[in-house]
Amino acid sequence: MGTWHDLDVGRPIAAPLERCAELLGIDLAAIRAAAANVEPYLRADGTRIWSLMQLERQLRPEAYGRRRGGYLDRRRTPSGASSQASARSG
């Protein structure tokens, strides 16, 4: 059985802006513009790191469905489901 040191978790959750630009494949100027609307995490040594997911949401808002109140839309309803429900009730 492995330990938490052995896990390969893929990309990190948060990183410095330069590393975020590399991981997301976007130029540093665009990352800095997006970071203006995202509050960074502060490490114990004072280093500022930014959430990759929050930056990605700033850069590509159309990729994340929204519901009223700002919640993410997790439910996916098939396009035919609403027409079948109205046919049954009528």
Short description, anyone?
The protein is mainly alpha-helical. Helix content is 37%, strand content 9%.
Can you put this structure into words, describing what you see?
α1 crosses α2 and α2 packs across α3. It contains 4 helices and 3 strands, in the order βααββαα. The chain is globular and about 50 Å long. β2 and β3 form a beta hairpin. It has a 3-stranded antiparallel sheet. Helices cover 37% and strands 9% of the residues. The chain has a domain of 55 residues. By secondary structure, the chain is mostly helical. The model has no long low-confidence stretch (mean pLDDT 78).
What spatial order of strands do you see in the largest sheet?
1-3-2
- End-to-end distance, in Å? 58 Å
Q: What does the overall shape look like? A: globular
Mean pLDDT: 78
Poorly predicted runs of 5 or more residues: none
**Major pleated sheet:** 3 strands, antiparallel
Structural class by SSE content = mainly alpha
| Count of distinct strands | 3
Reading the helices and strands in chain order gives: EHHEEHH
State which percent range the strand residues make up.
Answer: 5-15%
Into which percent range does the helicity of residues fall? 25-40%
Quaternary structure type: single chain
Number of helices: 4
Radius of gyration using CA atoms only: 19 Å
